[in-house]
Amino acid sequence: MSMRSGTRLRVPFLLFLAFLLVACAATPQSQQLLSRPSDQLPEGVELVDVPFFPQELYQCGPAALATILQYNQVAVQPDELVSHVYIPSRQGSLQVEMLAATRTFERIPYVIPGTLTAIINELDAGNPVLVFQNLGLSVLPQWHYAVVVGFDPEQQELILRSGTVREHRVALPVFERTWQRAEHWAYVALTPGDLPASAEVSDYFMAVADFQRLHPELSGAAWQAGYQQWPDQAVIAMGYSNWLYQQGDLARAASVLEQLLSIQPDYQPAQQNLSAIRNEMQS
């Protein structure tokens, strides 16, 4: 047998080994979640009103994005999103383009923590979750976007809008493997003024700040919601105060800073901004 023919025989065998390794890959999140007593599992949830758009070849990005946008009262079809997110040379959509298109259509994309618990918490809050998966291998990836719309604790499954299947049910460990190979990336689309279930101060600040660059006139509700949730957090108070200042509402901008300084009296950025606003109000 020649070396060349031996190589040909080894390639399928190596691929078979790779598939075995994938099938046996650890799924710590699923194991931790499913090891709980049944009465301690999260309750089942399914967002049945989430729309469904059967995707064409390589069109999972526009289809998944249209799914979460329409659920958030944005009248848009997948075909309208192709020019925003689909890259023909890659036969797919990049994550950064998905986030940017969400902002274009006046919704705030918020990337959630990469945990199954975070996904289920968002579902409980009424937020479908757009997820990125690798349905292939790490060495032979098959990238895919889908939308998680439900959790079935009895069957230990997630329910997705995926591909050509409206109610695609997948076992938690299987989903975790495909999601793990895409670095556990997922996000929700928020109407300004709504908070994600997994809201974290610095991540929320960055999400709203990025949104404000494109839609300053729509950002006020998001800043106000963040400030109501975290009135003692300097980064949120400063962001809200700056937005109020840009809108010409100097009195409320000063009030937010005064409240912050009552909690953190030595916070110099707030001191400086408040002094500048007071000088402007007196001039």
The fraction of residues assigned to DSSP E strands is 15-25%
Helical fraction equals: 40-55%
Mean pLDDT: 91
Q: Could you name the ranges where pLDDT drops below 50 across 5 or more consecutive residues?
A: 1-23
Total DSSP E strands: 9
Largest beta-sheet characterization? 7 strands, antiparallel
Which class best fits the helix and strand makeup?
Answer: alpha+beta
CATH class of the largest domain: Alpha Beta
**What Rg is obtained from the alpha carbons, in whole angstroms?**
23 Å
The backbone outline, from C-alpha atoms, is: globular
Helix count, per DSSP?
A: 12
Give the helices and strands, then pairings.
Elements: H1 3-23, H2 28-34, E1 45-46, H3 60-71, H4 78-85, E2 86-87, E3 92-93, H5 95-104, E4 108-111, H6 116-124, E5 129-134, E6 143-152, E7 157-162, E8 165-171, H7 172-180, E9 186-190, H8 201-214, H9 220-229, H10 234-246, H11 250-263, H12 268-282
Helix pairs in contact: 3-4, 9-10, 10-11, 11-12
